[in-house]
Specification:
Chain lengths: 210, 210
């Protein structure tokens, strides 16, 4: 199909499609004449993936490029790619050198050990958790760590559901793509569900007596 | 204390503190002379809250202002404020008018009904969920809805833990603030935990046979 039809099929404007090709988010079409290219279903699917990661996942263009490179990297063992992809998706927070972060990192290492997780305490996810816990402590909500176990159990439940879903895919590229999509869009899904559950729990707790 | 000490205590630069005052994120200090103001512990705490919402929560300056106004609004019943605060924190996604969003909204309404949640299907959280589900469908991962129940159960568990934590606060403003902080920073905490659990689950599933 021509670029105009690709645009109609995906709702992405022609200049934006050209921008994504320049930025390496979308492979160029097959040249059929010096200034015309043909696109196929792989471009439709990739464009939808790019828009989902940008619009719903909130990733930057550079972040989407990294994720797409991770999906395309066929050299590594699957579980390594999954780890790398997950790490790349985690936001990198500036670590304040204050005393709070040291205690928070110890709390994270203890949590990982307690749950027997095969996760490295120096991984981006562990560091992001430490920064979030230090920030909670900084605003006077250090007691939040007491509910961390409930959070960790819920996270295990979600991760198991994610992996069960992912393990259905037999083709390697689909498997890796589904992990990345699930990691990014799954966060948006869970965040929305958590707020729905909040509204319900808050209504039951405070709705009748205030 | 003077603005220089407030800056040292919080690690926020003096020009940035002045910017936050202009933007309404921080109340001005008490004027002690025409060009000097005194700040106190409430400023230290508020500055840490603002930085936590900006840096870890990823909110915009306008988003932080809205959240702070919601905390300060003492007129409304508590559960209404909690709902409003939660709704304001939810990212607003552009809703594509495609057929995908209609089916996704029906799936969300069915999920709310199934779990007996007192949540409105038109709320921002429900709409954010519908947009995320429609995006998953658009990238060929419509089957993800099959794991939605596991997600919903985990979200209920987290929401109960959040409300248990919140209900300890007896002072109204602290209660509302703790919900807002928990909603924003709790997302960062859960996202990091989910990735730690992913790495563990992925290593167990794929680590030995690839």
């Amino acid at each position: 199909m021509r670029i105009g039809e690709l645009s109609r099929r995906t709702g992405v404007s022609v200049p934006t499609i050209k921008y994504y090709v320049r930025e390496g988010l979308l492979p160029p079409g097959q040249l059929t004449s010096p200034n015309q290219a043909a696109y196929d279903e792989t471009h439709v699917r990739r464009l939808r993936l790019v828009r989902a990661l940008l619009d719903v996942g909130g990733l930057s263009v550079a972040g989407v490029r990294e994720v797409i490179l991770a999906i395309a990297d066929t050299e590594r063992p699957v579980h390594k790619v999954l780890g790398v992809a997950a790490d790349r998706v985690v936001p990198r927070y500036p670590e304040e050198p204050g005393e709070g972060i040291v205690a928070a990192r110890e709390a994270v290492a203890a949590l990982i050990a307690k749950h027997g997780w095969r996760s490295h305490p120096e991984s981006p996810a562990a560091q992001a958790l430490a920064v979030a816990l230090a920030a909670l402590e900084g605003v006077g909500h250090g007691a939040f760590v007491e509910v961390l176990d409930a959070y960790a159990q819920a996270a295990e439940r979600v991760a198991r559901a994610d992996l069960d879903y992912v393990a259905r895919n037999v083709v390697r590229e689909e498997l890796v793509e589904s992990v990345v999509v699930g990691t990014v869009l799954g966060d948006a899904v869970f965040g929305a569900l958590r707020r729905l559950a909040h509204v319900d729990a808050s209504d039951r707790l405070f709705g009748d007596n205030t």
